[in-house]
Structures are given as structure tokens and as C-alpha cells.
């Protein structure tokens, strides 16, 4: 038994050492990779949703139809293709015919840091090189909010679409609260699922204070600043009433900016009634004019395929060998920490 205990202790030490080395190596690789990320190339992934829907339809038909029915369907399909080709050829000789509308679909899954903003800005830049006044951009947005400056910048990316005069539609299937709604409200048309969480037009900040614990253990904490309000409340020093008042004033100013932002893009909303930090489900949010339509992104896009060419557009970085070997370790810890913070934050956006 003593041998097993010693052996177990040895394995534990080895495992600890290996994990420590992996963290260090992963961190070094991540730093090197980040330094090259600005110059490394990524690529756009583009899929035509119309063709995918047709493929799925054909697969179901093949699985559910008899051999005789399949022959009849194939005959009908060939006939339709001939008619379509003939029509396209005829329209090609008529310059006055308007081109078919295009709809570009982007996805934004926001964590507390709005980490997907860099991908979003690249996707929007690419789409704006091709999209015309008659086209449309649809953003499938999911976010419970997070840092004010991060979501402010993400909102500015969506505003670029509207500034170009291109219709912007935002679809919310699960949640667009706080910073998520800051982004969503920019849309010309806002669609949310019946039980999607909408709103939380408010600002929150919280931090622990360890001053009494430090005093109890005879630990001094000294803070030096130049400028009266360079630092207001602190985690380790003794917070004064004046510092708290200034901090609260800053939160109120941010809240006012948030309300003005929503008022600008959704002028029909009674902002004082909804800017309480409360949230609503999609079927309730439409009564407050926070959204324009109740429905899912699937319904919206499938319906759009009948009258437009629908393309999903996503930007993806090319992974280097170093990233595949080492970055996953460091990135895994970052993702886990961010995921925990995001889950905790999203749980606050709940009616239950």
C-alpha cells in the first residue's frame, strides 16, 4: 500500500509538471501566434442556402418516394430545368430586367468580450464590396451582453451596413440583452423567436472590496494617482462616499448613452418605460415595440429563398501548425474562463 501511495504521488507530480509545461508552451505559442495574426491570412466561407435546401428536399424525396414516383419527379425536374434555362437566356437579352435580390447571412455569437467582432468586421467589409441597394444583410445574433466598449464597437460595425443604405435585418433565436440589444436595435427590421430574451437596457458594475480583510491582517494598501478621478472605487483600498457617488454617476451617464442609442434607432419605443434593465420574451417585446416581428431565423431565411439568392458568409482564420500543436492549450483555458463568465452573465438575463 505504501508503494501504491508513493507511486500515486509520483504520477500526480508528473501530471502537474506536464500541465505546467503545456501551459507555458501554449502561452508562448499563443503570444507568437497573436503577433502574426495581424498579418496572417484568413478566408471567407460562402454557402448558397437555396442549393442546400434543394439538396435536402431531393434527399427526402429519394428516401420517401417509390421508384415510379422518383421517375416522374426526375422527368418533371428536367422539364423545369429546361424552362428555367430558357427563361434565364431570354432575360439575359433584356437589360431592363432587374437582377435577382441577394441576401447575405452573417452570424454573431457574443461572449462577455464580444470576441467575434473582429470576424464580423471582416465579413461586413467583404459583403459591402458586393451588396447593392436592393440587397439585404441578415445577422443571426445571440448575446447576453458584456463590456460596454466592446459592444459599442460591435454595434458600430452593424451601423456601417445601414450607412450604405442596405437593408439590415437582425434575427434573434435565443437572447439579445444588454449589449446584445445595443447591437440588435440598429436593424431596420428586428425579428425574434417567441421565447427569445430581449431588452435589459441598463448598466451594471460590481466588484469585491478586500480592505477590511487587509486591515485585519495588518496589510497596508497604497494607491497613487494624478487626477482627482483617475481611480474612484477600488478593490483593495477604502472606498469613500465621494468615490461611490462618482462611480454611480459614471454608470448613469453610460445608461443615458444607451437610452439615446436605442431612441435613435427605434424612435417609436417608450424608452423610459423599457430602459429599466428588465427583460421580455419575444412575444412580449413586440408589444413594447422592441422588435418588429415574432418568428425564428429559420422561417425568415427559408421564406427568403423563394424570392432571393441567400448566401451565408463567414470569415475563418487559417490555422498554422503552431496553433494546431500548442495554441489549443492556452486557448482552451481562455475559452473556459470566458465561457464561465458568459454563462454566469447570461443566467442574469432570465425571467425565472
Keywords:
16% strand, elongated, 352 residues, alpha/beta, 7-stranded mixed sheet, 12 helices, 2-enoyl-CoA Hydratase, Chain A, domain 1, 3-stranded mixed sheet
Description of the molecule:
α4 links the parallel β2 (101-110) and β3. The chain is an alpha/beta fold and 352 residues long. Helix content is 53%, strand content 16%. The chain has a seven-stranded mixed beta sheet. Strands 5-7-8 form a three-stranded mixed beta sheet. It starts with a helix and ends with a helix. α1 (2-37) crosses α12 (321-348) and α4 packs parallel to α5. The chain is elongated, with a radius of gyration of 27 Å. It has twelve helices and ten strands. The longest helix has 36 residues, at 2-37. The chain has a single domain (2-205, 244-348), classed as 2-enoyl-CoA Hydratase, Chain A, domain 1. Mean pLDDT is 84; it is low at 33-39.
Number of domains: 1
Shape: elongated
**Amount of helix:** 40-55%
Topology as a string of helices (H) and strands (E): HEHHEHEHEEHEEHHHEHEHEH
Question: What is the average per-residue confidence, as pLDDT, rounded to a whole number?
Answer: 84
Structural class: alpha/beta
For the record, the CATH architecture stands as Alpha-Beta Complex
Q: CATH homologous superfamily, by name?
A: 2-enoyl-CoA Hydratase, Chain A, domain 1
Rg, Å, rounded = 27 Å
Summarize the structure.
The protein is of the alpha/beta class and 352 residues long.
Topology:
Blueprint: H1 2-37, E1 42-48, H2 49-64, H3 67-92, E2 101-110, H4 117-128, E3 136-143, H5 148-163, E4 167-172, E5 175-177, H6 179-184, E6 189-192, E7 197-199, H7 211-216, H8 241-265, H9 271-274, E8 279-281, H10 282-285, E9 293-294, H11 297-304, E10 308-317, H12 321-348
Parallel strand pairs: 2-3, 2-10, 3-4, 4-6, 5-7, 6-9
Antiparallel strand pairs: 1-10, 7-8
Amino acid at each position: 500500500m505504501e508503494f501504491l501511495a508513493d507511486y500515486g504521488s509520483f504520477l500526480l507530480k508528473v501530471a502537474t509538471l506536464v500541465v505546467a509545461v503545456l501551459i507555458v508552451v501554449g502561452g508562448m505559442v499563443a503570444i507568437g501566434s497573436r503577433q502574426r495574426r495581424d498579418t496572417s491570412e484568413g478566408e471567407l466561407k460562402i454557402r448558397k442556402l437555396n442549393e442546400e435546401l434543394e439538396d435536402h428536399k431531393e434527399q427526402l424525396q429519394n428516401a420517401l418516394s417509390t421508384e415510379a414516383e422518383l421517375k416522374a419527379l426526375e422527368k418533371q425536374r428536367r422539364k423545369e430545368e429546361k424552362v428555367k434555362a430558357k427563361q434565364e437566356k431570354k432575360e439575359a437579352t433584356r437589360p431592363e430586367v432587374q437582377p435577382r435580390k441577394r441576401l447575405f447571412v452573417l452570424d454573431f455569437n457574443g461572449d462577455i468580450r464580444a470576441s467575434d467582432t473582429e470576424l464580423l468586421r471582416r465579413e461586413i467589409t467583404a459583403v459591402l464590396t458586393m451588396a447593392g441597394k436592393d440587397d439585404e444583410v441578415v445577422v443571426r445574433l445571440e448575446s447576453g451582453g458584456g463590456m460596454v466598449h466592446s459592444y459599442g464597437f460591435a454595434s458600430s460595425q452593424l451601423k456601417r451596413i445601414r450607412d450604405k443604405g442596405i437593408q439590415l435585418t437582425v434575427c434573434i433565436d435565443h437572447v439579445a440583452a444588454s449589449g446584445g440589444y445595443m447591437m440588435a436595435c440598429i436593424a431596420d427590421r428586428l425579428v425574434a423567436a417567441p421565447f427569445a430574451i430581449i431588452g435589459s437596457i441598463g448598466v451594471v458594475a460590481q466588484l469585491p472590496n478586500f480592505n477590511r480583510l487587509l486591515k485585519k491582517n495588518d496589510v497596508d494598501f497604497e494607491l497613487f494617482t494624478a487626477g482627482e478621478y483617475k481611480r474612484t472605487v477600488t478593490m483593495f483600498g477604502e472606498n469613500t462616499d465621494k468615490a461611490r457617488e462618482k462611480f454611480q454617476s459614471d454608470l448613469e451617464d453610460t445608461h443615458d448613452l444607451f437610452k439615446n442609442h436605442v431612441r435613435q434607432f427605434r424612435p417609436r419605443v417608450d424608452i423610459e418605460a423599457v430602459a429599466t434593465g428588465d427583460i421580455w420574451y419575444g412575444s412580449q417585446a413586440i408589444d413594447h415595440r422592441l422588435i418588429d416581428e415574432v418568428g425564428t431565423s429559420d422561417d425568415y431565411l427559408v421564406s427568403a429563398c423563394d424570392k432571393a439568392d441567400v448566401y451565408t458568409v463567414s470569415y475563418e482564420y487559417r490555422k498554422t501548425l503552431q496553433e494546431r500543436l500548442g495554441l489549443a492549450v492556452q486557448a482552451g483555458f481562455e475559452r473556459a474562463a470566458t465561457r464561465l463568465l458568459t454563462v454566469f452573465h447570461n443566467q442574469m438575463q432570465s425571467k425565472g
